[in-house]
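U., I forgot to send this yesterday:
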Amino acid sequence: MYSHIPVSLSDLRQPIHQELIEFRTFFKEALKTEVFLLDQMITYLHKMKGKELRPILVLYSSRMCGEINERSYRAATMIEMLHTATLIHDDVVDDAEQRRGLLSINQVWKNKASILLGDFLLSKGLLVSLDADEFELLKIMSKAVKAMSEGELRQLKASKLQNMTEEKYFEIIRDKTASLLSACTESGAHTATENKVMIDRMRQIGLNLGIAFQIRDDLFDYGGEDVGKPVGNDIREKKITLPFIKALENSSFMERQKWKLRFRKDKKTKQNVADITRFVHDSGGLELAAAHMQKYSQVAIELLLEFPPSARRDEMQRLITYVTSRKK
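Result:
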């Protein structure tokens, strides 16, 4: 196990510092448009730049299987367009007011323009591959889009019916989140090698990493010693995640019925949210969910260790470790 855990992504950016500059240039060029409103919105998008975790994952995966090249930048650009489009659409659905410290796109330009911008990014991402005859990349991305849509719809249905189980939870996060991180590692590998065994191994690394990533996100909602102040958004939205599922499993029948009923309540007060959060803490839900997160992270590392020892493998292991130890 790599002993040093970076406190931020800045350490992980260093080995690919120049390549990230190249990616950003490629990304901006790919988004150029002569439509004035679109140009305004895209300029605003550039100001909302996120952590770039997914492009970093693409580039790291390329390095694991060969060298970063123009095809790697193309794959990273497609991934970032797809991810950004889903965030914009999510903000419309959730009526979000902010994104990355700025007003969300839907708050500045309203829902209709936001949906159209998301659609533009999705179509542009597909065209990036088609214009270069990158049909395998198109296939990887299209499968991810399909899986993400199915995962979101499954989650909506489970939230409405309040019939989430651990099995359903893992099906949902495998589609909703892990499919995209899997596309990152698979597409990155594909741009650097034709070795199908290596490409499939990288795909599996991304899949397991993506599951661990989502569990970490779900832990944030309930707070704890290593994740900070609880947020409670999932609780308010009646979104059942692994910490609550594991807390229920660790409780008596009567306790389960009581807390399920409280979770189903439509308009929860701050006290309601605090009570549910405390129940999850007291019932060991956080620890049990974190154990699952570490299990999937460890599988990703074990798959990575099938590659020959190298500085690049060590750096990739640091990235995997970061995902399950990040503070936000």
